[in-house]
UniProtKB/TrEMBL annotation:
InterPro entries: Copia-like_N, Retrotrans_gag_dom. It comes from the Eukaryota. It holds the Pfam family Retrotran_gag_3. Residues 28-74 form the Retrotransposon Copia-like N-terminal domain. Coiled coil: none annotated. Residues 93-167 form the Retrotransposon gag domain. It comes from Sesamum indicum (Oriental sesame). This is Uncharacterized protein LOC105156734 isoform X2.
Length: 373
């Protein structure tokens, strides 16, 4: 009988033929027909990025040959042919699961993964001309607006990558290719600078005067650093305004105490019979009358001050509000950053104007909560 070996018994496991398929014809345990290869399905408007993601995913699985025609269907070995059909159906299922439901229904009856891919390219893969025009138009119209430097650069780089995918530079090692790559880098730098906000006019001019022009990555890093420094400087006036309010509150409190002390005992001889402390009377005792808002704010600021004792305090709130000039400081910062980039050195920025030493406002505090006694 055909099902038995020469000894008349059933074939053992050792007698069975073990087939080792090449990697392109293997399917692993985690791979199944319900898989999707990409996170963003094809919706009809994103074929360029979608097709790139599909090719990367199939390339990682060594299955890209099933859509580009390089893994042709075997014609002689039946077992290999059956395995090829299995893997081809799996790849086609992955593609269909990576397309939106409204679109995938129109491609359910394709004969193979390659046939499905070619139909998708014919329907959604416009010729390079219109796509190149659309990308170039979006690049030329893109500007920073209210975006951060990082968000603006990310959008612009995405368009550059799409353009390079459709219209790549020559892939060779000759001097002409290197020159083209250098010119393309300079064009990208100028496009990036053109879209910046007008507040970056100064740094834009300084970068364009640098010889040679910096790389796009270096210019981006410089502008990102300046943007972060600008955010710190913009927040500084808010601190100064708060300090001024604290100063005004303490000044008013001191004036009230002086008015109450006229014709009577001086401050040192005053005594509060409620909290049993000297320096104020029962009528002005915060523990009895309640703590004013400026006092609470000052107390919080005092705690912050104690944790930052290593800072040098040398500017009053009024002086900071009068002398603070945001545009001037930012301009100086830009000059410093450009000089640093041109000299390939890193300088430490000048320390910002210091905070207020509150005890200089009205002398020693009258209450133990400040920790001043």
């Amino acid at each position: 009988m055909s099902g038995k070996n020469s000894h008349g018994s059933e074939p053992s496991r050792e007698d069975k033929k073990i087939i080792v398929w090449p990697e392109k014809l293997k399917l692993h345990g985690g791979e199944h027909p319900g898989m999707s290869l990409v996170s963003a399905p094809l919706d009809g408007n994103n074929f360029l990025t979608w097709s790139r993601a599909i090719k990367l995913a199939l390339g990682a699985k060594q299955k890209i040959g099933f859509i580009d025609g390089s893994y042709t269907k075997p014609q002689e070995n039946k077992e290999e042919m059956d395995q090829w059909k299995t893997v081809d159906c799996m790849v086609a299922s992955w593609l269909l699961n990576s397309i939106s439901k409204e679109i995938s229904e129109a491609f359910m009856y394709t004969s193979s993964a390659q046939d499905l891919w070619e139909q998708l390219e014919a329907r959604f893969g416009d010729s390079n001309g219109p796509m190149l025009y659309d990308i170039q138009r979006r690049i030329s119209s893109l500007s920073q607006g209210d975006m951060t430097i990082s968000a603006y650069f990310t959008k612009l780089k995405k368009l550059w990558d799409e353009l390079a995918h459709l219209d790549p530079l020559p892939n060779c090692s000759c001097d002409a290719s290197k020159l083209l790559a250098s010119q393309e880098s300079s064009r990208q730098l100028i496009q990036f600078l053109m879209g910046l906000e007008d507040t970056y006019d100064h740094i834009r001019s300084q970068i364009l005067l640098m010889e040679p022009l910096p790389t796009i990555g270096k210019a981006y890093s410089m502008l990102l650093h300046i943007e972060k420094q600008r955010q710190v400087h913009i927040a500084a006036p808010e601190d100064g305004a708060m300090n001024a309010r604290i100063y005004e509150g303490r000044r008013q409190f001191a004036n009230q105490n002086r008015e109450k002390g006229k014709g009577g005992l001086d401050k040192k001889s005053q005594y509060c019979d409620y909290c049993k402390r000297s320096g104020h009377t029962r009528s002005s005792c915060f523990k009895l009358t309640g703590f004013p808002e400026w006092y609470k704010t000052l107390l919080d600021q005092k705690k912050i001050e104690n944790r930052s004792s290593n800072r040098v305090f040398n500017a009053s709130a009024e002086e900071r509000l009068q002398k603070y000039d945001s545009n001037l400081e930012i301009s100086d910062l830009i000059k410093m950053e450009v000089k640093r980039a041109m000299n390939e050195q890193r300088y430490m920025p000048e320390p910002a104007a210091n905070m207020i030493e509150y005890q200089d406002f009205t002398g020693p505090c009258d209450h133990e909560d400040f920790g001043c006694r």
